[in-house]
């Protein structure tokens, strides 16, 4: 059983990355363009351009989410996204109360930790970075970003 789970790990990680990136990008698109219900607290509206920190956070959400979804520069995009969610939690939510359940900060906390996990695990399967690395013959791709079958093939 453990062997099957281990062999599926890169694929599940790739799906996790794609889902988290998609949800994050949708959140940014809603805030910037008023789609999908619009920005939170605006009754379907948008955040005015250049407004600090909301508009900049929405840009990070849209662009960072898209990069993570595609698996393009995943670690860097996830690091920026994680930092933006940490900022959102500590600057906006924690002022109201200590615990996320009390201050409405569950979503920023979960996004922050999900993106931080991707910083350390890499993109997993189905990532554009993996396709680009294979096209270039795998040059410059660290072993930690390789899938389990790729590592096994490299050591054989």
From TrEMBL:
What do the Gene Ontology cellular component annotations say?
Answer: plasma membrane
Please give the chief subcellular localization of this protein. Answer: membrane
Family note: Belongs to the DoxX family.
**Species assigned in the record:** Streptomyces mexicanus
Subcellular locations according to the entry = Cell membrane
Keywords of the record, alphabetical order, are: Cell membrane, Membrane, Transmembrane, Transmembrane helix
Q: Where is this region: Disordered?
A: 136-156
The reply on keyword Disulfide bond is no
Q: How does it sit in the membrane?
A: Multi-pass membrane protein
- Which positions, given as ranges, span the membrane? 12-35, 55-72, 79-101, 107-132
Is Cell membrane one of the keywords UniProt gives this record? yes
Stated name of the protein:
DoxX family protein
């Amino acid at each position: 059983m453990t062997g099957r789970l281990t062999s599926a790990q890169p694929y599940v990680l790739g799906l996790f990355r794609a889902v988290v990136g998609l949800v994050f990008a949708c959140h940014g698109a809603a805030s910037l363009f008023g789609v999908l219900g619009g920005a939170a607290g605006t009754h379907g509206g948008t955040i005015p351009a250049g407004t600090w920190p909301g508009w900049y956070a929405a840009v990070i959400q849209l662009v960072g989410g898209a990069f993570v979804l595609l698996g393009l520069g995943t670690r860097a995009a996830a690091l920026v996204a994680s930092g933006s969610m940490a900022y959102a939690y500590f600057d906006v939510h924690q002022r109201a109360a200590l615990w996320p359940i009390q201050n409405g900060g569950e979503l920023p906390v979960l996004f922050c930790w999900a993106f931080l996990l991707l910083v350390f695990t890499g993109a997993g399967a189905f990532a554009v970075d993996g396709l680009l690395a294979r096209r270039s013959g795998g040059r410059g791709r660290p072993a930690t970003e390789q899938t389990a079958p790729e590592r096994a093939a490299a050591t054989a």
